[in-house]
Amino acid sequence: MSRLRRFSLWRAAAPVALLCAGLLFATSATNARGTDLRPSRNTTLAGLVEEQSRRSATLTRQHAALSGDIEKLQTQQGAIEPKLAKQLKDLSVQVGTTPVTGPGLTVTLKDAPREVVKDNPDIDADWLVIHQQDIQAVVNALWAGGADAISIQNHRVISTTGIKCVGNSVVLHGVPYLPPYKITAIGDRRKLQQALDDSQYIENLQDYVVRFQLGYEVKNESNVAMPAYEGTLDLQSATVPGFETTPSVSPSASGR
């Protein structure tokens, strides 16, 4: 009798166990979304950065294509007044949404070589890598030198561009990048070079270039073809110096 009862209990429990297992497999498949839930130990920061950069580039291209479709539809609705069309064109150049070409400079920044890091274990690691302040100093000097347009890693710099350090990478427009960092400016090459030479911050950076072999190279460019900025121009928040700030939500964030 007890044997028959155990057999009956097993027959009843088996379907429940199979159902639970099925639910677990379905949950794992949904969470993974076709990816490995336990990635290889060989996964590196460089690989993650490259994957994120590729994904961002794909989304940027899609955004640019959709923006182009919108402009075509707007054109089909009727011709724009010539005076207004010229104003829009002039503003687009200033904003950075129009490709530009011309002579300029490219500044390349690199971390110290691996052998230098290995040979100086007691040196603060922050001294051996390029930081956001270094990139910002170069960009600010180039603007001060009268640059007409600037790009970083071949991405156009606009008024809302932010440069941030995250771990061993620098984030630009929400996308992480690893060195070397290439900063290109279009403008009078002599004035641009003079502005770099006059920068006190860059002068201090040169000390680390000599002591720890940080990379700092300036190259003359006879003709630079700089792409337009293709990201969103939405401004989530902003403050005016000297005015009291009050919490606010942008229209795009509120959905209204």
From TrEMBL:
PANTHER family per record: CONSERVED MEMBRANE PROTEIN-RELATED, UPF0749 PROTEIN RV1825
Domain of life: Bacteria
InterPro entries named among the record's database cross-references: DUF881
Organism from which the protein derives: Kribbella flavida (strain DSM 17836 / JCM 10339 / NBRC 14399)
Keywords of this entry: Signal
Any one Pfam family match given in the protein's UniProt record, by short name: DUF881
Signal peptide: 1-32
GO cellular component, one term: plasma membrane
Name this protein carries in UniProt: Membrane spanning protein DUF881
